[in-house]
């Protein structure tokens, strides 16, 4: 039986052979040159017995004469049982010169399969004809051809032939071979009934059968705009001309992807932990070696490649607790309340997972700020919880107003059970830093309404405004007295990805959970144990963040200099971004007090809104897509974070180097002015 590769070679020759010089055109009245198929001189002696079980024909590719077309040549079929062979038959030339080279018996549309050995004369010029056999072998010919077709037209080959028959390849007109094509098609249909097509089994997983909660998940930070950016990058790599030379991914807070250099001390310790042989190298400072040895000794087999406890490596949890105590001015932290996580996202998802319960009006409601980081809405959708929006005050630098919290919770009680209050401080995407008074009001509100507090504090090192200071919820909670500190349940989160470190790829993080019921604590550990443990390398990176060099240690000066340089540059870029955006007509940007994003409000004309609706896009998505296509700058539309009805924004990171950031801001300015002119 010919291989699939051989069949495919022949099938691919259809176009070339159909248009080759000297090959007949439809209904031209002449046929291609045919030659004789000589009998196999080496075959066994003639035998008149039945042709029971011939081997498949020997099929070899060859080039057709003077045409350069690739097809198949079918050799005589041998039969070895009882010393018999197919009778002494010879193909006769119907037209053409005697002695010519045999043409390729093409199977381009599997016509040769149907016409092979002269069995079917469909007469359609688009199928290569088989050799014409003499009448004296017609009986044997029919038997051989029938078996040959059964062997040849197997599997996908038969399916393709069936498709050709269904499509009606041959018109109902006489062909150059003097035979009605429709009768050949009928014979082809009969042949194909030998092995009917198999129906393909329906897939188990489809959009209709998949988990509807997963289908409802949306994550704008890596949504359609980012997919489009990837397509444009591939086009640039292929040399397709654009009005820009690179795509600038300002959609995500990936510091090192934007050119920020790693902190030397952190990478030194990680290198030593990853390849302990370097501990003998004089190239590494002793304080880095000391930390690496301590971390390795706490790992199974003295290796980062081993599993850790589900809650995390014990000595790292101790270091996290000591860090929190220092940060909060002596407020105690218990290592048993520390859970190391795969970035902060893992901790947030885990806590929400254990909080969500109930059904109908008793289904858990989760209060989140609008604008919000899309992780929250995504996890809420995945867990089929109820999202309860409360709006930050854009006119007051995105401040959190407790009256807005009261409005949101009262309205939510009509259709769910509000149980969780999420705070992002400093804010993402809005960049605000909550005042101590605001935090006190929020804690009191949570105590009053019996809400579980979740404080996302991954940007705690990123505070730029001289009038602002980071206050942890844990510290304020304890300073409000035992009535609050002993009763309000609080989970707070931190990460290696932000701050001055920018180590997103290590996926290191922790959460501190306080005032948790002892039985729930056991359930939380059980839930965490399902994923075994967070990456131990990420745990080690988190340890270096919370246990950096201190004055008097060899690496302190370099570490301190690098840290201040990163944070100082971010502060300059925050001010630069705010100032330049506010110089553009139709753009307003609140002060960037912290974090690493700008979230400017943009004016979009009504004609642009109509154009967006015609493209079935949100207006700010339409704006951001145009910005990407015309400038190569990738930002995230505000609709992906949530915003008040009738307002439009986009989020842009301030992480690019200063000169590149200036270029980005200038391009946005030029684009926005042209956009307003076009749709005014």
Automatic annotation (TrEMBL):
Ranges of Polar residues composition bias in the record: 1-14, 25-37
Enzyme class: transferase
EC number(s) from the headed UniProt entry: 2.6.1.2
Catalytic activity: L-alanine + 2-oxoglutarate = pyruvate + L-glutamate
Keywords recorded for this protein, A-Z: Aminotransferase, Pyridoxal phosphate, Transferase
Lineage: superkingdom: Eukaryota
UniProt similarity note: Belongs to the class-I pyridoxal-phosphate-dependent aminotransferase family. Alanine aminotransferase subfamily.
Assembly: Homodimer.
Name of protein: alanine transaminase
